[in-house]
């Protein structure tokens, strides 16, 4: 049985600054290099793929379709799918995931988890949609993927203090994706082509999540 991500937030394990070298262009799907400084091979490697809107209007929406495949060598139990949402978005988003998935959103970090471990060769998924604030301009940048923890069998019932004391290893697999925010000209002419409209993400099993800090 998997635990809430707040366990690791409380233990300070997820607050480590990210340093993801070799981040690829958003147009090239790759497996992103892991966080620098980790010398121990992770229990599970993940292949990350993201589909998303390449452009949107000011005040518009961006929908992300995130997939994470466990390449092994072991099953993944303590892992969380999601990542860093763009700056300048409204503090409520809509999301969908496998049955039993739960999510938490605090600051720019939006993480979700399911009730079951992910076996080698299996893929987890998460779809979510953010809405830009009207004043947000330029490029909306997100870093999406997985954070995983190397938790051995028999450690599932340890308290957060014990996990913190043991210094459980954690790994990031994140992919950077960028969406261009298009501002219409004051006097659009025939040459003006608006970005394709983004439909509201509202499947039958969608959910809403609010940012606890409301600081995006």
TrEMBL record:
Residues 180-216 are annotated as: Disordered. Residues 206-216 have a biased composition (Basic and acidic residues). Keywords: Signal. Residues 1-26 form the signal peptide. It comes from the Bacteria. This is DUF11 domain-containing protein. The lineage of its organism: Bacteria, Bacillati, Actinomycetota, Actinomycetes, Streptosporangiales.
